[in-house]
Amino acid sequence: MKTVLTVAGSDCSGGAGIQADIKTIAAHGVYAMSAITALTAQNTTGVRAVMDVTPEFLRQQLDCIFTDIRPDAVKIGMVSNANLICVIADALREYDAPNVVLDPVMVSTSGSRLLKEDAQDAMAKRLLPLADLITPNIPEAQALSGITVNTREDMERAGRLLAKRYGCAVLVKGGHQKEEANDFLFKDKTGRWFYGKRIDSKNTHGTGCTLSSAIACNLAKGRGLADSIEMAKRYLAGALASGLDLGQGSGPLDHGFANSQTEFYSD
Ligand SMILES: Nc1ncnc2c1ncn2[C@@H]1O[C@H](COP(=O)(O)OP(=O)(O)OP(=O)(O)O)[C@@H](O)[C@H]1O
Ligand SMILES: Cc1ncc(COP(=O)(O)O)c(N)n1
């Protein structure tokens, strides 16, 4: 069985972060492991509190994982402070982690900052250069590149600039566009668009977490990057289109929409 590690924050309401990642990884038939960077008290309406783990405790989690069950891919999500970022960077290097997919989570859908302002620099300097793929949304691409991103051409320019600056592949996600859900990949000096039909739903909590975890699963299975993104976008569209409607705000996706072996359980 292939294995994927998610290094991210816990979302107690289950829609984003570690919980979304583990549901996604399990739905892909891959063994999920987690190193938790922070506990958040949040739900579909917003984030109430964040409690970071200590750097020492994060390091212990990473050591336990890498010295025992080696991950075939690593997904990194919310990491809110510079000390934790440095711990992850050191461990990725020391253990020569494969297939690192980094979602540079900065602000939640509900508008709360999940990355401290002074930690953005540490993320850019220490973590981004270690990633194989980074998956910024439009505001994150703008913050990291310094380019104002409105149009498709802006997404292409930001992707190209970030790929050159950090030496990794870059997927600029277009979920924040009004009419489309198209994402732009720039890798090895070549750009490519992944087109997605926009699904009309307010329940988009955790789309970024889900997409990056699904990509990590596909890479862990040995698929190429473009294939991995294509399949992950299809999985995300299915989880969004299934129409789950929970909570009073921006609700979660149905990560198990494709589970078909119902002989093991019943409603
Ligand atoms: N309404 C939608 N219909 C179809 N695809 C969508 C929709 N919203 C987002 N996506 C897709 O979901 C993925 C995540 O994109 P998005 O830009 O929303 O990331 P994000 O802002 O990091 O997510 P999050 O809401 O978890 O922070 C992308 O592939 C995007 O194209
Ligand atoms: C622990 C954690 N990680 C990531 C997100 C971003 O997801 P979203 O933008 O959908 O709120 C979140 N809200 N919480």
From TrEMBL:
Its EC number is 2.7.1.49, 2.7.4.7. GO terms for cellular component: cytosol. The keyword Transferase applies. CDD domains: HMPP_kinase. GO terms for biological process: thiamine biosynthetic process. It holds the Pfam family Phos_pyr_kin. Pathway: Cofactor biosynthesis; thiamine diphosphate biosynthesis; 4-amino-2-methyl-5-diphosphomethylpyrimidine from 5-amino-1-(5-phospho-D-ribosyl)imidazole: step 3/3; Cofactor biosynthesis; thiamine diphosphate biosynthesis; 4-amino-2-methyl-5-diphosphomethylpyrimidine from 5-amino-1-(5-phospho-D-ribosyl)imidazole: step 2/3. Coiled coil: none annotated. InterPro entries: HMP/HMP-P_kinase_dom, PM/HMP-P_kinase-1, Ribokinase-like. Residues 11-254 form the Pyridoxamine kinase/Phosphomethylpyrimidine kinase domain. The keyword Kinase applies. Keywords: ATP-binding, Kinase, Nucleotide-binding, Thiamine biosynthesis, Transferase. NCBIfam families: HMP-P_kinase. PANTHER family: HYDROXYMETHYLPYRIMIDINE_PHOSPHOMETHYLPYRIMIDINE KINASE THI20-RELATED (PTHR20858:SF17), PHOSPHOMETHYLPYRIMIDINE KINASE (PTHR20858). Belongs to the ThiD family. This is Hydroxymethylpyrimidine/phosphomethylpyrimidine kinase.
